Amino acid sequence: MSVTTLRKLLADKLGGNNPSAILHADQSTGQQPMSLFDIEEHTEHYLALENGEGKNKGLLTGALGFGGLLFGLFAVAFFLDGRSQSAIETFFIALALFIVPFLWETLRPLPLPILFNRRTRELYFEQDGELYHSPWDGIAAAAYQFHMVGPYTGGMRNAALEVLIHRYGHPEQQMLLSLGLPMGKSLEMQEGFWEYLRAYMNNGPWFDEHGNPSQSDAFVKSQLEVRYRPSQMLPFTWQRLLEKRCAAGGKNYLDWTDVAMLLGLAFLYPMGVIQEFTYNIAKRRSRNRWPVVVTERLQPDGPTTRLVDMEKT
To answer: Over the stretch 196-214, which tens digit does the pLDDT of each residue have?
Structure first.
């Protein structure tokens, strides 16, 4: 029934004019697993995908907190110069530039991620206080490609990956859930991401580049490294320069762009650290908003009954 419903929704949405595919949990797409940029956590028992505007959480605190660090340096300079009053005033400005946006961002609820539970083989999603879910076995998913044209960007290729889920306790209330942002992705990329999810749920938690079970987490780690993290840009650039130095055999390997990039990233590094710190605090505070039926199933020794089975009983 869910596959039939999904086909109808897809036909109504696209009108048969865009490349698309219906995806299944037990059928390969022929693509190799690809994590893309939306995986927040990949653990032994569950996988979490970032959801909505929560991806930018901490950006404001990072920017203003970085300004607060600069004001803090001015406060130290004033103090060493014997200007105590100016030092105190500047210090409180620096403190406010960090604390005010930090509290504003961490006290506001962060959208809960999309969860894939390996132990119970199901998917969880929360929206407006309501729990939605779907069993993994027999899940219906659709990938489709479309183009957007803007006055400044021109034509841009996009591809979405959506699954059909329903409200807990109300199977008749269904919705299409997008697994990540579609911008800049192709149909093949989304099929590769579906293969990553299939490999995790069916063969995981660790698997190789073909999706086969593996005792090593090397491939998974290599895939997760593509996720953008502000504080990792400086170490990544430094590692790239070290590799460039080895390849040059001791010869002059630096050019002005390398130096400018390194200095710029070093200057902005504190902002990235503050942003990630704020995001992690907000994430930990938000996780207790999951219903008990979800949190207990995320535990290594929690129940293994599926929500769909609980609905039947």
So the answer is: 999 999 998 999 999 999 9
